[in-house]
Design goal:
This protein is an all-alpha fold. It has 7 helices and no strands.
């Protein structure tokens, strides 16, 4: 047996999960650092952290659902149109499919034979894959994307929220920054590993932008804290 492992079947949930976790960790950490830089009061920081977690998770879920639903609507419309064309002009659709295979390098005779066999087995599936570029593993799944984004955002936002509740008030900004950067390195590396990319590049890329975000919000917090 020749077993192969590919990463394409993870695209649907991996993108939403990585985006949700990164956004949860970076945005909530930045929010905590910014508020703590202006007012290290535990109550103020904790309220900001919890509000950021809840509001961000719901916002991510809504945004993913709307976005992926639009993609799903487009896919359904294209498939419906293709279904109608297959019913109205099957010979023209067969010729179109054969032309696609011929353009990819098959001989004319073989392209026609392949198109004939695929049209008999699953005409709509063949046209969806080879004409429209719609594949089962990358089909839009709005509910899955929304749930993955919300759960992963909350998971990413949980560490800075917990630190806001546990760390000494004067150490909040520095502690949250250090722990968040370490978690971003791990998260970026894991996501890169799952996606088959460079672990070091993925980890550094995420941590860099997290550092930029926390640095900017800390500067804003110091600015407004100094003019209160």
């Amino acid at each position: 047996m020749h077993n192969e492992s590919h990463h394409g079947d993870r695209i649907g949930w991996l993108r939403a999960a990585v985006l949700g976790a990164n956004d949860g960790l970076i945005s909530t950490s930045s929010l905590v650092v910014g508020v703590a830089s202006a007012d290290p009061s535990r109550t103020a920081v904790l309220i900001a952290a919890v509000a950021g977690l809840v509001g961000g998770a719901l916002s991510m879920a809504a945004g993913e659902y709307v976005s992926v639903s639009s993609q799903a609507d487009t896919e359904r419309a294209d498939l419906g149109r293709e279904r109608g064309e297959l019913a109205a002009s099957p010979e023209a659709e067969r010729a179109e499919l054969a032309g696609i295979y011929e353009a990819r390098g098959l001989s004319r005779e073989l392209a026609v034979e392949v198109a004939d066999q695929l049209m008999v087995k699953d005409a709509l599936g063949a046209h969806a894959r080879d004409e429209l570029g719609i594949h089962e593993i990358t089909r839009a799944r709005p509910i899955q994307a929304a749930m993955a984004s919300a759960v992963c955002f909350a998971a990413g936002a949980a560490p800075p929220a917990l630190l806001a509740a546990l760390l000494p008030e004067r150490a909040l900004a520095l502690g949250v920054t250090g722990v968040s950067l370490a978690l971003l390195l791990v998260l970026g590396g894991v996501a890169a590993r799952l996606g088959g990319a460079s672990v070091a590049r993925g980890a550094l890329r995420v941590a860099f932008w997290g550092a930029v975000a926390m640095g900017c919000t800390a500067a804003v917090g110091h600015l407004f804290g100094s003019i209160r």
